[in-house]
Automatic annotation (TrEMBL), chain A:
InterPro entries: RNA_pol_Rpc34 (IPR007832), RNA_pol_Rpc34-like (IPR016049), WH-like_DNA-bd_sf (IPR036388), WH_DNA-bd_sf (IPR036390). SUPFAM superfamilies: Winged helix' DNA-binding domain. DNA-dependent RNA polymerase catalyzes the transcription of DNA into RNA using the four ribonucleoside triphosphates as substrates. Specific peripheric component of RNA polymerase III which synthesizes small RNAs, such as 5S rRNA and tRNAs. The lineage of its organism: Eukaryota, Fungi, Dikarya, Ascomycota, Pezizomycotina. Residues 293-312 are annotated as: Disordered. Keywords: DNA-directed RNA polymerase, Nucleus, Transcription. This is DNA-directed RNA polymerase III subunit RPC6. Pfam families: RNA_pol_Rpc34 (PF05158).
Automatic annotation (TrEMBL), chain B:
Component of the RNA polymerase III (Pol III) complex consisting of 17 subunits. It comes from Penicilliopsis zonata CBS 506.65. Residues 240-266, 377-426 are annotated as: Disordered. Residues 172-468 form the RNA polymerase III Rpc82 C -terminal domain. This is DNA-directed RNA polymerase III subunit RPC3. Belongs to the RNA polymerase beta chain family.
Length: 360, 635
């Protein structure tokens, strides 16, 4: 193991096993059992590496013994950076830097930097260019204000407000990604939403007749090979945001880990699409369709209803008088009046419609 | 519903059903709102004789209101658009009556519809309402012959026959009355609702104690009492005394005494018609008062149709067992629900308070449900079996079939549909389970009430009516603009007014798609854009644009369009008929009618069949459009 790696392990161990303001003596560090064979020379080498990285600070302990204090990574970075900054930036640049720094993960609009610093536009531009060139700041795309030029510190990840969440890449909605994740979610949720009845029971169901036998005919069983039954009210085994998020992250369909907020965003969309139902104020989610139906529907190509699709499919999706009758779809509906230029008598839509429906 | 297209439609319906004279009177009155006879004669250019005949018949059909003013002594005539519109719904109503109460009841109902209103004594004499001896006797002529044949028989026998015959019509009328499908005609029903209100107020104001009241107080008093008086005067309910424990007489007893016989709901119409209605169905044989004049009670029928619509929806969304349980609950509620709404107009979105139906006791419901209906096989277990070593089960779950070890396929006694009916407690539990399932989102078809420690179930109809309206709108939106549009509309509906960016964040749609769909929906009048300027100059760059979806406005527009589409379909039927006029006249000839096979050539027969198919299809479409009108206007 290299010195650097050992040093890193030592640092982590110190961080996890002791309180942050602990004063470390030699025996504390050796006691962590990280330094091979408790070699004192090597220990000193490691501590020196960490001191150089500003992760440890060397102190004078009791009786003039050597002691160390641990420094958080964040503070260490600031410290390193601070010195560097002082060395590398001119006063205007550091003024701009500080303004950008103060806005954290939200980023700041160029116009706002100008207002706050009072620098002339040309100088500001030069500063920004310099800072960006040295890789201290970066420009970010804000979904809320796509036309504004915004900056934030290079080392920070923009907040959800700025990016619009996981569903945006560079401020543009990633529709394919959204589709694949929501397809996955709907299917995952559906598998937990329906009870798959064993085949034996299905058989039994079919045999049972009602008193007069006609009820069975009135409500024919929509039978398929498998039978999916709804769970009783109060069932607790539906998917939750946590289980769905875990499933999505484990599935390998997402290159980045998605947070629960992002998943909730998508779940809401699925609810708006009438694919899922949220129960107990979003505590759990249930699918409207059973897994088999979800699969079948996902196999069909998405998008607006294909006017050439066979009638069965169209009927199932849209189903009322206005969507069926020629007048409900008529492009000249508003103009149509009996005796007028467009009229039910001269109408050219009825004949094809009748022909299609009746087949003659 | 005083719109241009509703009026056009009603005039068409009247012309199709009653001919040109009625239509002429109707549209004249419609145009001028309210006319005296001389004015009507002037505007319609009809002769006195025509007018007298027409008005009298139209009044009998409740197509026209009339009102005689006490002030000037004139009689004013006014159209009854509502009644006229119901002409289009009659087929649906008769179908439902046949489904529920059998073919004979449907015949009685259609006779009453045909007459507008009818005295029971008159109905008794009608040959088409004599019980039929056999199915072959479908035609009126044969019936008459049969009746004459009886008249020639021995006197005593004849009287007996008549008694039996009248018993059939009386028990059927009682069933119709008990269900509230027919009501008694009252004088006030001939006056428009408006006149009735004014009349009631006049009566109230004439009372000395009311006269003494001061402004505000008097107003308040009038407001509170007018409705009551109008109700008293127009109420024609005949179901009182014909109900037994909240169920119209006959329905329940039959079920519990002879569970093996067909139940009302699922009457097999091909079975022997006469036995369907036995005399002992109704308390005693006491006939109805022959002097009563009865008419069809459309508001009540709308309640039944609305329930049927909801059951259909449940049937699509869940198992048939659940749908049947729901059907029983809604049936019970129907018996105690006189109309769909208490207010004339559909209230605006968000301004409608929750209104629960009468609560129905779970135990009462259990008795109504077909004891042979398998309730356990259509709901999953409370916990999914996790292999042989399953953890503790709550005893409550007995009766839901998952408790037995399904994986080994050994149904226990509770999973067995027939034996479960023997154990009342578990049956009750199962029924409750189905009702709980119905109470779930997204529809919330039912809601549970504990009353005095007993489980009751009710239905919040206002919310369901809204749901039905939204569904119809969404179907149109989906058909016209695709599923992207549907998502956008739902987001706007749930969240209110949104700017484009916020809309995108919630709907997660690419800007291009979003803009496109918003623009086309805006052009179609489904969504609107509101401009909120941020300064007085109203500069576009300083203006926020908010999208919104107003289902009330959209629904009102679609209702108009629906009326119009119905008219166009009816006009097209007329046009198609005109195209075939000569040929159709031939088929209507009395010698040809009924003997088409003999008199028509093969080609002509084909044309005839095609014409009938066309007409049926177009009428079917009109009826589907009427379903939408019902949702937007009546439920
Ligand atoms: S043109 Fe034809 S389809 Fe269009 S509204 Fe008129 S009748 Fe209907």
């Amino acid at each position: 193991m290299s010195t650097a790696e050992l040093a890193a392990r030592l640092y982590e161990a110190c961080l996890s096993k002791f309180p942050p303001d602990h004063l470390f003596y030699q025996q504390d560090l050796l006691g962590l059992g990280i330094v091979p064979k408790n070699d004192l020379a090597q220990l000193l080498q490691l501590t020196q590496t960490l001191v150089d990285q500003k992760l440890l600070r060397l102190l004078q302990g009791k009786n003039d013994r050597l002691a160390w204090k641990i420094i958080s990574r964040e503070d260490a970075e600031k410290y390193v950076f601070g010195i560097e900054l002082l060395q590398n930036l001119n006063p205007d640049e550091s003024l701009v830097y500080n303004v950008i720094h103060s806005t954290g993960r939200s980023g700041i609009w160029v116009r706002a930097i100008q207002n706050r610093t009072g620098l002339p536009k040309s100088i500001l531009d030069r500063c920004l260019k310099a800072l960006e060139g040295k890789n201290y700041i970066k420009s970010v795309h804000n979904v809320k204000f796509p036309t504004r030029k915004m900056y934030m510190l290079a080392g920070l990840a923009p907040s959800e407000d700025v990016t619009g969440g996981a569903w945006f890449t560079d401020g543009v909605l990633d529709a394919n990604f959204i589709n694949s994740v929501s397809t996955f979610i709907e299917y995952t949720v559906s598998r937990k939403s329906w009870y798959e009845a064993p085949a034996v029971e299905v058989q039994r169901n079919k045999r049972i007749k009602t008193a007069d036998g006609s009820a069975a005919a009135k409500f024919p069983d929509r039978s398929s090979d498998r039978q999916y039954l709804p769970f009783p009210a109060g069932y607790q085994g539906y998917s939750t945001v946590a289980t769905i998020t875990a499933a999505v992250n484990e599935s390998g369909i997402t290159p980045v880990r998605l947070g629960e907020e992002s998943i909730v965003q998508l779940l809401q969309v699925l609810c708006f699409d009438n694919k899922l139902v949220s129960l107990n104020n979003g505590e759990m989610y249930r699918s409207i369709k059973n897994p088999e139906a979800v699969k079948a529907q996902q196999a069909r190509k998405p998008g607006p209803i294909d006017p050439d699709a066979d009638d069965d499919e169209r009927r199932r999706l849209v189903f009322n008088g206005m969507t069926e009758a020629p007048c409900g779809q008529c492009p000249v509906f508003k103009l149509c009046a009996p005796g007028g230029a467009v009229s039910p008598e001269t109408c050219e839509y009825f004949d094809p419609w009748l022909e299609k429906a009746l087949g003659f | 519903m005083t719109s241009q297209y509703a009026t056009e439609l009603c005039s068409l319906l009247i012309e199709d059903n009653f001919g040109e004279l009625f239509a002429r009177i109707f549209s004249t009155l419609q145009r001028y709102d309210r006319l005296t006879l001389p004015r009507l004669r002037f505007y319609s250019r009809l002769s006195d004789r025509q007018l007298h005949h027409g008005l009298a018949a139209m009044v009998q059909h409740h197509l026209i209101y009339h009102y005689t003013s006490l002030e000037d002594g004139n009689t004013y005539y006014e159209t009854n658009l509502q009644s006229a519109y119901y002409l289009v719904r009659s087929g649906k109503i008769l179908e439902m009556i046949e489904d529920r109460l059998g073919k004979y009841a449907a015949t009685v109902m259609s006779t009453i519809m045909f007459l507008g209103h009818a005295q029971i004594a008159h109905l008794e004499t009608l040959p088409e309402l004599k019980p039929q001896r056999s199915h072959a006797n479908g035609v009126g002529e044969e019936m008459k012959e049969e009746a004459e044949g009886q008249a020639n028989g021995v006197d005593g026998e004849h009287e007996l026959d008549e008694l039996v015959e009248n018993a059939a019509i009386h028990s059927t009328l009682k069933a119709l009355a008990a269900h509230g499908y027919v009501i008694q005609v009252r004088d006030a029903q001939f006056q428009s609702p408006n006149d009735n209100v004014l009349d009631a107020q006049r009566v109230l104001k004439a009372r000395p104690d009311v006269k003494e009241m001061k402004g505000k107080k008097q107003e308040q008093f009038l407001l509170e009492n007018t409705e009551r008086i109008v109700k008293e005067r127009t109420d024609g309910d005949l179901s009182r005394g014909l109900m037994f424990n909240g169920v119209p007489q006959g329905v329940k007893r039959k079920h519990s005494q002879k569970p093996n016989e067909e139940r009302r709901e699922y009457v097999d119409i091909d079975e022997d018609e006469e036995n369907e209605w036995s005399d002992d169905d109704f308390g005693g044989n006491s006939p109805m008062d022959s002097n009563l004049v009865v008419r069809v009670n459309y508001p009540k029928l709308d309640v039944a149709l609305r329930n049927r619509r909801l059951v259909e929806l449940v049937d699509q969304e869940s198992s048939s067992a659940t749908a049947q349980v729901y059907d029983c609950l809604l049936r019970r509620i129907e018996y105690q629900t006189p109309r769909c709404r208490d207010i004339a107009e559909i209230p605006r979105e968000g301004e409608e308070s929750e209104q629960y139906s009468v609560p129905i006791r779970l135990s009462a419901l259990v008795d109504d449900i077909d004891p042979y209906l398998d309730l356990s096989g259509s709901i999953g277990p409370m916990e999914v079996p996790q292999g042989p070593a399953r953890r503790g089960k709550r005893p409550l779950e007995n009766g839901v079939h998952g408790d037995t070890d399904d994986r080994e396929g050994q149904p226990s006694s509770t999973t067995n549909g027939t034996s479960s009916s023997s154990s009342g407690a578990s049956r009750t539990y199962e029924v409750d389970q189905h009702l709980c399932l119905l109470a779930q989102p997204p529809y919330n078809f039912t809601s549970k009430r504990m009353i005095g420690g007993l489980i009751n179930w009710t239905v919040e109809y206002r919310h369901l009516a809204r749901k039905l309206r939204h569904t119809e709108l969404e179907r149109i939106i989906e058909a016209r603009y695709g599923d992207v549009a549907l998502r956008v509309v739902r987001v706007l509906h749930a969240k209110g007014k949104l700017d484009e960016k916020r809309l995108q964040e919630i709907s997660l749609l690419p800007f291009k798609d979003l803009r496109q769909v918003l623009a086309s929906m805006q052009a179609g009048g489904f969504v609107d854009l509101q401009e909120v300027p941020r300064d007085a100059q109203r500069q576009p760059s300083r203006t926020i644009y908010l999208w919104f979806y107003d289902p009330d406005r959209v629904a009102a527009g679609i209702l108009e369009d629906t009326y119009k589409a119905m008219s166009r379909c009816l006009q097209r039927i007329r046009f198609e008929r005109a195209r075939l006029r000569e040929f159709l006249d031939k088929t209507e000839r009395s010698d040809v009618k009924g003997n088409e096979e003999r008199y028509l050539s093969e080609g002509e027969l084909k044309t005839l069949h095609q014409w009938r198919a066309k007409e049926a299809l177009l009428l079917g479409e009109v009826s589907r459009l009427d379903d939408m009108v019902a949702v937007f206007r009546d439920y």
